[in-house]
Amino acid sequence: MQLQEILTLCNVPEASLEKILAHDRWRLEQQFAHEKWIAELNVSLKGCSRPKIITSQNLSEDDVLVNELTGYGELDNTHIGKLSKTPVWGASENKATDIFYEWKKSIVDIDDLPKKDISDSRIKKLLTTFLWSNSLAQRHAFWPEGKDMHYIDASKREIKQKLQSYANVTIVRGYDAFKKFWREINSDTNVEFNSSFIGSILDNAYEETLKKEKQEKKADLLRSPLFCEMSRQFPNISLRDLKDQMIAKRGDFMSAILAIELKNFSKTVPEEYKELYTQETWGNSYFKHVRKYDETWRNTYKDFYLAIRKEHEKWKKELTS
Known about the structure:
Layout: H1 3-10, H2 14-45, H3 61-70, H4 85-105, H5 120-142, H6 152-163, H7 168-185, H8 199-218, H9 225-233, H10 239-248, H11 253-267, H12 279-282, H13 290-320
Helix pairs in contact: 2-8, 3-5, 4-5, 4-7, 5-6, 5-7, 7-8, 10-11, 11-13
């Protein structure tokens, strides 16, 4: 099916659909590559009578490799064949420290994220959780019968609890930035990221974030009938400034537009006063002439608002229905 057909059927903006497809594409590529990697390792071990319990006497080169990769170079051979959730968390923290500041700088519009999420300690914990979830999933896939694998369900719950303490948008932007760093993290080995322990959490975060973005776009004052008509009748008025003023004035259009007119008036000398004032002296004298203009502004915008108010109120009501 063509992209345009999908957009039509789903009523999803093209930019949003691209985000969904990009997210799914990366996860599927990683998933298939990881399954291929495990299959290749299993083939290499076929006929070797691989033991259920790995000991120092029967461990293979692949066992050593998996432990090295999932322990980010921090774990010794005593952890081979085990989940080792706590030591792996420590190793993930150390790896997170190595890439933290570069990763944080790459998060798109990080200052727009909830303040509670973006302190260094909090956002680093998110990065650590991504790394930790991958390692636990890799170790479980390669050593499914390891002697401490009964901690798998508890580990999944812990991962879920950690991630659910963040806003969905923080998870999404943090994960998008993380994907770019994954290749750098594994530059020498090119191991695929295993998202199986956090897949449903990621899917929900992306879905909810896109829903919220769609709703915010729909509720954007710049798209309202009031602002559309303002741009048509009063093109010299900055709609961005008007939006900021309406938010500051709690939605009161008249207070917002009068504040803008007053601000513009204070900065620009009207033609009729240019012989009396320079731009510098006008700033200290404009208030003497405000009353004359204030009545004109009020009448002009009162008539305008009365004409568009019914349509604007209908638009606001539809947002909450």
